[in-house]
């Protein structure tokens, strides 16, 4: 059975930020995608995609990676081929975490952090982090599969006070 509403197909999430001042410790932000199956849609993620972890089937990829925000334009980019995900995956979250190497770093400490979310050429959301300036990590996008199998997008930024590893495990709850 086909659906007239095809839903989201290929989504790109771009993360930009400006480097820390010259001579100071680099600011390293990470894009993280977490997938959830119908058995545990808000439990532990089925798998994570980030700089050190790939998706088993290649449907979600980190195509750009930065440790310091010094790149021109986009620093990190996640590509989510939602229309290729197996049917048992019903929810995908994208978050941004700040590496906590030297004391506590929050979004308020980072110069011009921003996220842009697009489905093909259509912008779904532009995120700044002004409302979560005290957070060390944040959920920035939620994609959910509906009963027809089509993927939809839920906007909203939710701050967390957790290191990247902990954040990745709790961002779906
Ligand atoms: Ca990074």
Describe this protein with a few key phrases.
1 helix, six-stranded antiparallel beta sheet, mainly beta, 173 residues, five-stranded antiparallel beta sheet, Stress/Tellurium_Resist, globular, TerD family protein, binds calcium ion
What's the SSE blueprint?
Elements (H helix, E strand, L loop, with lengths): L9 E9 L10 E9 L9 E3 L10 E5 L11 E6 L7 E10 L12 E9 L2 E7 L8 E9 L5 E4 L3 E3 L3 H7 L3
The structure holds calcium ion (CA).
Calcium ion binds next to strand 2.
Description:
With 173 residues, the protein is mainly beta. The protein has a single domain, classed as Sandwich (Lipoxygenase-1). 4% of the residues lie in helices and 43% in strands. It has one helix and eleven strands, in the order βββββββββββα. Strands 2, 3, 6, 9, 10 and 11 form a six-stranded antiparallel sheet that branches. A five-stranded antiparallel sheet has the order 4-5-1-7-8, with no helix packed on it. The chain starts with 9 loop residues before the first strand and ends with a helix. InterPro entries: Stress/Tellurium_Resist, TerD.
Number of helices: 1
Instruction: Provide the CATH superfamily.
Output: sav2460 like domains
**How much strand?**
35-45%
Mean pLDDT: 94
Number of strands: 11
CATH topology value:
Lipoxygenase-1
What ligands does this structure carry? calcium ion
Report the end-to-end length measured between terminal Cα atoms: 32 Å
Largest sheet geometry: 6 strands, antiparallel
InterPro entries: Stress/Tellurium_Resist, TerD
Organism: Kitasatospora acidiphila
Protein name: TerD family protein
Family: Belongs to the CAPAB/TerDEXZ family.
